[in-house]
Amino acid sequence: MGFFWRFSRIAACVLFFGVTIYLAPTEVAAQGVGIKVTPAFIEELAEPGEVLEETLVIMNVNDEAKTFFLYRQDISGVEADGVPVFAEEGVEPTGYELSEWIIFDEQQIEVPANGEFRLPIRIEVPENASPGSHFGGIFVSAEPPRLREIGAGVGYEVASIMSIRISGDITDNARIRSFSTNKLFFGSKDIDFLIKVENQGNILIQPRGPLTITNMFDGITGNVVVNDTLAGVFPGTVRDFNVHWEDEEPGFGRYEAIVALNYNGEGGNKTIDASVTFWIFPIGILIPVVIVLLVLIGGGYLLTRLYVTRVIAQTQGSRRIVSRRYRRRAGVSRFVFVLMTLLTVTAFFLIILLVLFG
Amino acid sequence: MYVLKRQSTAYQAIATLVAVSLVLWGLGVHMFSHKAEAASLSYVKNTLSDSAPSEASDHEFEFRSPTDIAATNVIDITFPSQFTGTSSIAVADVDFEINGTDETLVAGAPGAAEWGFTWTGDVFRLTAGASESMASTATATIKIGTNADGGTNQITNPSATTSYEFLIETGPAGSPNDTGRTRVAIIENVLVTAQINTTLDFSITAVGNGATVNGTTTTGTTTNVTVPFGALSADVIETLAHDLSVTTNAANGYVVTVYSDGPLDSATAADIDDFDDGVPLNTPTTWSSPADLISDENTWGHWGISSEDGTTTRQAADEFDSGEWIAASTTPVVIMSHDDPSDGTTQGVGLARVGYQVEVTPLQEAGDDYSTTLTYIATPTF
């Protein structure tokens, strides 16, 4: 009886914990909702009258089937850093529109959970399409739910943006509006450059090229590629490109930076260029050395004067044989002597610095 | 004695000048000197068919001269010495146009109605015949390479990635009237050996109670597509959050904006206004309670949004700091961005937590249906 009772208790415990473990809720990783589109950026060349065909793949990042709504919209411009600005209804046309060229059959699609939908798209370029770049986007939109309590329903959209360049009498005119450094004098080779590129044409340009830094002797001390990711400059806009250059090697003297950017214009690769100058004075080296120099020169002068005075006093006794008038003239000579010494030593010091670091 | 004193003063002056000159030279002041130059050519440019290092390329020069190029005058183009293959360029590889009209070119000395072509060292020269000229209002186009009619030879680019300057001079040989300079960049082309489509994956994930969003602790739980504040108590701040993630291989990154369709509206026509006190703020500002003025219903409650992405395409002064909020505007505002490809998981690159916060006062009208919609838009950037 005692054995049976003990066995029953053990069995009950095993059964209890087994059921508990079996029924315990498993921790489920957080699953969001979203959309994935491919391609998200379409860039093509086209002739007037040409029809381009693309396929937009839309993936439902969701554990449930979802209805997405599709619509087109023009891009009327860009903000800083290439952020597209989508045209609102009723806004005056800019000439860069293309939404009406985009044709697809569905206005809403049903995409299964974690599944995808392949949307055929045609871009029908009109015969009278104006030469140059045209911009627009296709939006895949999930509508927000209607909330029945205090709060907000959240919807989300992903856009696939397009840049179509129509051949013809395009205007490709760009310039470097300004090229500058953040300062004129630097203590080391740690320079920030700002290049403002202005696109005065009617095509999207992607300027890219070398920024070369040369020293006073026309030796190349640095070379950086500007806009390696081919960020675009929208027609009629100015875009900033920030470039940072640094080098552990110390520098000294006057430097010149020349930036030359290529872009694909009419007939081939065109270049726009600009230059800027700046100085590098390694203050961390200069100040201590100048202080030491001043101490050495000043100390040398004082010691020399003391010695001469003592020698004169010893040989002539305590009598002054130097007239006041002569001393005044000697005072002028001493000033010039000190000045010349300072300048000469500084000059040679600068030459040494140039040789070492220039 | 007087002569010696004069000599000594003179030596001192010379020594001082020498020392000053050395110092100024050491500082690079001499680089400011400008040579006197002739008048400038305008619209000077050189278009290459290929800018890659060590590749063969066509050149197309274009310019306008401020003065006439008279008969027997020359047009000289000095190439940087790093460009090679110039000795292979023959007259058939050169076209010269004035205002789009082909001119007759011959090798060597020209006849009266011809232009003569020579290439000596780095200098490309066209010489006007006795009855040839180019007016100051005309545009000159010089094509060198296969872009010339019948051209078969090209010039090879230098091997170093940098820029190179060309000098164009016009006028009498040896004493030009006008000069112009143009520069080309030699740089590797962006090779497309395999086409990789740009993808953009945007998702929203709910955040639970007790989480931190931009210096504040959440007081409730969102779902993936709702921000349910629940019942609001006077003078009690309610905070909720979402995690936004973007995964993309777009070379220049992406931007996420958000807009609302208005304040939190009730069917009773009451509303909970935008932060702050109904004056929509787009500059992130530290949260403050509604002013609770009996005469102004805009001050009875407000709500706002925030983001943990502190480096976006917003103006520097408009970036979010800890504890700062803006109004949910009806026009899209940037809430998250990155200027390179992103992984969807790294904070500030492909991941950002956004917060939603509301506070009402005892004057806020009763209602259980204050609601609005928020819409996030994710796009690549140019």
Q: What would a concise description of this structure say?
A:
Chain A is an alpha+beta fold and 358 residues long. In chain A, 25% of the residues lie in helices and 42% in strands. Residues 16-29 and 324-332 of chain A have low confidence and may be disordered.
What topology, given as strand order, has the largest sheet of chain B?
1-14-13-5-10-9-8
Q: State the end-to-end distance of chain A.
A: 101 Å
- Kindly report the oligomeric state of this protein: heterodimer
For the biggest sheet of chain B, the summary is: 7 strands, mixed
Largest interface: A-B, 87 and 89 residues
pLDDT under 50 segments of chain A (min length 5)?
Answer: 16-29, 324-332
**In percent terms, what proportion of residues of chain B is strand?**
35-45%
Q: Structural class of the secondary elements of chain A?
A: alpha+beta
Distance between the termini of chain B: 82 Å
Shape of chain A: elongated
- Based on CA atoms alone, the radius of gyration of chain A comes out at 38 Å
For the secondary structure, the number of strands of chain B is: 29
